[in-house]
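Check my protein:
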Amino acid sequence: MYLIAGLGNPAAKYEKTRHNIGFDVIDAVADRYNIHVTEKKSKAYCGSGYMEGQKVLLVKPQTFMNLSGDSIAPLMKFYKLDPADQMIIIYDDISLEPGNLRIRRKGSAGGHNGIKDIIAKTGSDQFSRIKVGVGQKPADWDLADYVLSRFSTGERCLVDEAVMEAVEALGLMVQGETDEAMNRYNRKKTVKQEDA
């Protein structure tokens, strides 16, 4: 079984913000594979089902971003899952332009507090992740305000495309095709200035 978690913040006011892109991907996966992410367990909304013949648990932590590990670590322990082989985390990345994906098998938190908390509480940074680009913070913006802001119309088109590509990538990853997912989706796209 794979635990696939998308990171975000609970509450309607955070919907469709840059920081909640992980939730958007989980919603798209749930929609495509007809999985209901409605069961409340371990401070998260969860839903189990199958993707490409593989059993998965989709997770949307309800702990707020910086405490994501409080939700994910107990689930990993309960199901006796190995982070290196059975956990995939989806989250926002401000170092990538909107619409770009970066798939990795492991790595540091890279300054992302949600990932930092998951690493601290699972005791491992050896897990697959899909980073979805949300764009760099403008110089005059506070980082917290920026990640809680919404996308421009042009950015949103690219991000919606990236969400669907993340769903495709996950379909490959649960079949053990992470290298193929990386080859296919780790490529650079740029937002047209007139759309920004």
User: Anything to note?
Assistant: The chain has one domain: 2-195. Strands lie at 2-6, 39-41, 44-51, 54-61, 87-93, 101-104, 128-133. The two ends are 40 Å apart (CA to CA).
